[in-house]
Design a protein that fits this description.
The structure holds 3 protein chains of 3 kinds. Chain A is built from 3 helices and no strands. By secondary structure, chain A is mainly alpha-helical. The longest helix of chain B has 28 residues. The chains are: A mainly alpha, B mainly alpha, C mainly alpha.
Chain lengths: 114, 92, 259
């Protein structure tokens, strides 16, 4: 049970990958990919967690208090906002594919000739 | 593992599964923002308020808005869309 | 390949991957027992060195500033790519007839939604500015505050309508805003190099103790630059997608009228 958070992260990654493989709609696929991205945040923050520790923000409390690892939080923080723009980029690609082919089903997308 | 951590983790796992299993992208975008909400709660429990704040803004505002707008763009050019006037047009 | 076959293959592959992952993870230290040497070192040093109280923001904009610049450039380039993709094929759609535009220019949605939209704008802007400027003290910073400020823009849209927003032209004046934010962080980093240190050297005095809004040297300025960039990026994204959806709707309606 002590590795439950790591298993939740793995479950999210695998279930997201399964969704990507099963998806019949590009926008559905993009949201499945965001599940895979979220799994990395859960894993990173779970690795940095320490028992009986405070958040790494010391406003009003002594700076020598035991705190969780701030480095993984810094990594995750920037990732979350970048994820949003990457999702936007993929949505723009999906809209463009729909303009070209008139469908969002990845099965019906064919390489264009000429 | 405290009970709080267990509950937050389980909620996130269930929500992630739901995002994948819901087939209609419109419903999926709402389920996806619930997953974001549960993730923010989990990050708060894991003593990461900075990340929780960031996650909250991104998954409850930015991503659903963009997905809804992309769906609106894609739906409106489908020819067999019903042409019944909306309530606001009848009122005008 | 038939969809049923594909799902079966995916299920088998995912089950295998999950089993392998669980086997690997079982050997990790217990949850909550890991100790990061670098993290502990920074936790002991940052308050004395930078006079800040938020270790995460201090790492993002100081100890790992180079990494943040890289992330910010990913953000910048993604947004540029989105605008290029969406505008490439829009030329033929740009010509919305004046009649169609007039028909669309009356407010949509209920009065309650619009009143709520207007009411939330001011509070959201204030919260966004607070979060951006207090990043080095309490949870928050440029990334979070920028997203909150962009949410205020979306509240304006919910309170108004597409044609009014199109006349305001946020897509045009958000581009320089976003670029200015990205350039601001790069120039602050370069300032460290010019001041005799290294790229991203914190070249300003660390400020008063106990920490105030100006503590942390360049960290508050970095936060403001990133806040401007993220606000510009998210607003530009929303404006571009709004243009797509709005043009499709206005044109769809004018075609209905003709038909």
């Amino acid at each position: 049970m002590s590795v439950y958070p790591y298993i939740v992260a793995g479950w999210m990654m695998v279930v997201g990958l399964f969704g990507i493989g099963r998806s019949r709609n590009l926008i559905h696929m993009i949201l499945c990919l965001s599940v895979v991205q979220s799994s990395t945040y859960v894993l990173l923050l779970a690795v940095g967690f320490r028992r009986d520790a405070t958040a790494p923000v010391f406003q009003g409390i002594a700076p020598w208090r035991r705190a969780v690892d701030p480095i993984v939080q810094a990594l995750t923080l920037t990732d979350v906002v970048v994820e949003a723009t990457v999702v936007a980029l993929m949505l723009a690609l999906a809209v463009d594919a729909h303009k070209r082919f008139g469908t969002l089903d990845p099965q019906d997308l064919r390489p264009q000739r000429g | 593992m405290t009970v709080l951590e267990c509950v937050a983790l389980t909620l996130v796992a269930i929500a992630a599964t739901a995002v994948v299993l819901v087939d209609d992208p419109l419903r999926q975008s709402i389920v996806s923002s619930f997953m974001g909400l549960f993730l923010s709660a989990l990050f708060f429990v894991l003593q990461a308020p900075d990340v929780a704040l960031s996650m909250l803004g991104v998954t409850t505002v930015v991503i659903p808005a963009l997905v809804l707008l992309a769906l609106a763009r894609v739906r409106d050019v489908v020819p067999q869309d019903d042409h019944a006037p909306g309530p606001e047009e009848e009122a005008a | 390949m038939k969809p049923a076959h594909r799902v079966a293959i995916m299920l088998a592959a995912c089950a295998g991957l999950l089993g392998w992952y669980v086997w690997g993870v079982a050997g990790l230290p217990d949850f909550g027992d890991t100790v990061s040497v670098t993290g502990t070192t920074i936790l002991h040093a940052f308050a004395g060195e930078r006079h800040t109280t938020n270790a995460v923001t201090t790492i993002v904009f100081d100890y790992r500033g180079m990494d943040t610049l890289g992330e910010e450039l990913i953000l910048f380039i993604s947004v540029v790519a989105v605008t290029l993709l969406l505008r490439e094929r829009r030329d033929e759609s740009e010509d919305i007839s004046p009649e169609a535009e007039r028909a669309e220019s009356h407010p949509r949605g209920s009065d309650a939604v619009r009143a709520l939209g207007v009411a939330t704008v001011g509070v959201t802007v204030l919260l966004g500015l607070y979060v951006v400027t207090h990043g080095q003290l309490s949870p928050g910073g440029g990334f979070q505050g920028g997203v909150i400020l962009a949410a205020a823009f979306m509240a304006i849209y919910a309170a108004g309508n597409f044609v009014v927003l199109r006349r305001m032209g946020p897509a045009d004046w958000m581009e320089p805003v976003e670029a200015a934010g990205a350039a601001g962080l790069a120039l602050l980093a370069l300032g460290g190099l010019l001041a005799g240190g290294a790229f991203f050297h914190n070249f300003l005095p660390p400020g008063p103790v106990p920490s105030t809004i100006i503590s942390g040297g360049t960290i508050p300025l970095d936060n403001v630059a990133v806040g401007i960039e993220v606000f510009g990026a998210m607003t530009l994204l929303a404006a571009e997608f709004l243009n797509e959806a709005g043009i499709a709707r206005v044109r769809g309606r004018s075609q209905d009228d003709e038909g």
